[in-house]
Amino acid sequence: MFSGQLLLGLAAAGMLREQAYRVVQTQAIEAWEQEDDFRAAIETDPDVRALLTLERIAQDFSVERYLRHVDAIFERVFGNIFMVFGEPDVDLNHLKDGTIQVTVRGVDVYDPTTQQIRGHSTDDIACWFIDTEYNGESFFVRHAYFTGADQPHEKLKRALKADVDEAAWSAIYSTTSRPFPKPKTGKIAV
Residues with Cβ < 8 Å from 47, sequence gap 6 or more? Predict the structure, then answer.
């Protein structure tokens, strides 16, 4: 783990890169084979000590150097991955002809980095899906709709690199679903 920084330190101090590699590799192999302390071997190596002080070697073996950005990395990676969506805010409408229609009004999002729940309007929802025959285990997209502000129609055209039929788009750009039959499973999922 510390070899790379040590090689850079030796090269910066004037040792040829190939020689630095040989010195570090030799000490690392010996430490591994003899189950010895790699840092102690480096600190007592005359070629290394001719160029690096004990303080500089300590810096090259510092774990803090490798951990100094860990909080920012976790924030960036896990703060974006682990967004847990709560139940969307929906109205379920039973129509006179026996069909069902869903209207989405927004969604609440839990942010684990702040431990806050934030409500969002349909302007913040890019798309939403319905499984009209939900079995309680697997979600199958049977209806797909697009919502949101910021010209999603234009973004879809650019993404598909094609024209999108205006009539077809108007059927799926909606916060209210097309009517669908009552599910045989008795369940839907949004």
Answer: 15, 19, 23
Q: How many CB atoms lie within 10 A of CB 99?
A: 14
Q: How far apart are CA 34 and CA 32, in angstroms?
A: 6
Q: Where are the domains of the chain?
A: 3-68, 78-181
Q: Which one is predicted more confidently, 158 or 143?
A: 143
Under DSSP, the state recorded for 103 is E
CA distance 140 to 129: 9
Q: What superfamily would CATH give domain 3-68?
A: Fumarase/aspartase (C-terminal domain) (1.10.40.30)
Kindly report the backbone phi and psi dihedral angles of residue 19, in degrees, each rounded to the nearest multiple of 5, phi listed first: -70, -45
In the chain, the amino acid numbered 98 is G
Judge whether 1 and 39 are in contact, CB under 8 Å. no
In the prediction, which pLDDT does 80 show? 57
- What integer is the mean pLDDT of 22-30? 92
Query: Measured at the alpha carbon of residue 96, what is the angle toward residues 90 and 98, in degrees to the nearest 5?
Result: 80
pLDDT tens across 118-134, in order? 888 888 888 889 999 99
Q: How confident is the model at residue 154 (pLDDT cuts 50, 70, 90)?
A: confident
Burial label for 31, CB within 10 Å (0-12, 13-18, 19+), is middle
Q: How far is CA 33 from CA 53, 65, 126, 150, in A?
A: 26, 27, 57, 62
